[in-house]
Amino acid sequence: QVQLVESGGGLVQPGASLRLSCAVSGFTLDYQPIGWFRQAPGKEREGVSCITGSDDGTYYADSVKGRFSISRDRAKSTVYLEMNNLKPEDTAVYYCAADCSSNSDYWGQGTQVTVSA
Known about the structure:
Blueprint: E1 3-7, E2 10-12, E3 18-25, E4 34-39, E5 46-51, E6 58-60, E7 68-73, E8 78-83, E9 92-97, E10 111-115
Parallel strand pairs: 2-10
Antiparallel strand pairs: 1-3, 3-8, 4-5, 4-9, 5-6, 7-8, 9-10
């Protein structure tokens, strides 16, 4: 059974950092593209970052470039999203998916990130 479980969200002040984790099971993470997406209240879901298959290429949305970093730990079957210098506009529910496209059939349940003073 394919599962993705996000963790690491929370309430932080502007300028703070968080590290989100996406633990996967039921498939081999080694060469699987994994994407991070987010959805803020009243807004459409948007792609934030993605790590591709065998070459671990990375993609970032312009709004997070230079602040967020995605990485993969194959031994732990986990993909991380390191988020630095968080801004109020980063507030959203963050999801990971088993694809860089939003058309993935497999999604986690989401983790809430709130950035507020």
